[in-house]
Amino acid sequence: MGGEVVVLAYDPEWARQFELLKAYVQPALSDLAVGIEHVGSTSVPGLAAKPIVDIDVTLAAPADVRTAVGRLAELGYVHEGDLGMAGREAFIPPAGLPWHHLYAYAADHPEYRRHLLFRDYLRSHPEEVQAYGELKRRLVERFRHNRAAYSEAKGEFVSERLRRAGWEG
């Protein structure tokens, strides 16, 4: 069910990896992207995480998505479509780059706003970082071979922290 789930202690290399990946895609999207953000657990200092950098590319307008898909393809990214989330485009990274998740959205997409809100909430609440890391370690023992169940089991924690951060989505 999606492969083995691995959660590691925070590694500062994740931030450096993001910066390298950002530098790789930014020139191709410089006139379209209003932001290239490191999101997900690897973007929160001190947080245990699956060792996969998540990147959100935000585009000025929904019409820019098609152009961005083409430019990312020129860099070697393989477009996977929206993977069930309308307005979000997912990409498989080119061979030779570290495995990462790259998504492109229009800047007003609610999932993008949710990602930033959760990341920024955790960054400003170190006690929550510790609690979330401990939860993830417990869950990985329980759901090591079931990625969907692992993700679902984190849902209540994430939803509650988003609510505390002001999310109304």
UniProtKB/TrEMBL annotation:
It comes from Paenibacillus sacheonensis. This is GrpB family protein. InterPro entries: GrpB/CoaE (IPR007344), NT_sf (IPR043519). It holds the Pfam family GrpB. Coiled coil: none annotated. The lineage of its organism: Bacteria, Bacillati, Bacillota, Bacilli, Bacillales.
